[in-house]
Amino acid sequence: MLPPGAARAVPPDVPAAVAHPAGGGALPAQRRLGLTLYRLRLERELSLRALARLLGYSAHSVFVDVERGQRLPSEALVGAYERAFGLPPGSLLKLRRQALAERAERLTDALSRTLEPAPAVPPAAPSSHWRSRAVRLASALVRLPTAVLGLARLPDAPGGTGSRLRR
Fold first, then answer.
1. Which residues contact 143 (CB under 8 A, 6 or more apart)?
2. What's CA 107's distance to the chain center, in Å?
3. DSSP code string of 64-106
4. Angle formed at CA 152 by CA 151 and CA 157, multiple of 5 degrees
5. Pure H helices in the chain
6. For residues 160 and 28, what is the distance between their CA atoms, to the nearest angstrom?
7. I want to staple 70 with a disulfide (CB 3.0 to 4.6 A). Which of 65, 87, 141, 160 is the partner?
8. H or E element: which one contains 60?
9. Which of 78, 87, 75, 71 minimizes the C-alpha distance to 28?
């Protein structure tokens, strides 16, 4: 992984305007790709719906996530952008491949951290507050059968001497 603030390598065939939209060289490739697609759409004064129609999509919701850099567009969608906007073939695809490589590196790093053994930490002793609550709870559980039996006694019936619950 790159240190914070370090510029990422840009494939050599990617035009400068595509590789670094608005000076965003330190941004992840997926975010740069999204900003580039957003800028290209705005330069042509296209709404999201008009862009969807231009590219042959029935809905425009996918483009919102792509332009925000929250979703990596498919290779077919990136190729459609290139054709629709008259960009050199493969110029955006290289940025997409770089985004895939960055995502693979990020996911691999995350997985490697989960596979490392956790440091052994002895369990902490319960605090005296929780210990006293546990003792009171245990004591109440021991007395519970006696209390339940006391509730089961029925009052004296008229003319009777008292009774217990009948089964």
1. none
2. 13
3. HHHHTTSSPPPHHHHHHHHHHHTPPTTHHHHHHHHHHHHHHHH
4. 110
5. 16-19, 29-43, 48-55, 61-67, 75-85, 91-115, 128-152
6. 87
7. 65
8. none
9. 71
**Position 152: which residue type?**
A
Tens-digit pLDDT profile for residues 55-90: 988 888 889 999 999 999 999 999 999 999 999 999
Give the span between the Cα atoms of 126 and 37, in whole angstroms: 56
- What tens digit of pLDDT does each residue of 96-154 get? 999 999 999 999 888 887 776 766 776 666 667 667 777 787 777 777 776 666 666 65
Tokens of 162: 């008292």
Query: Cα separation of 14 and 112, whole Å?
Result: 32
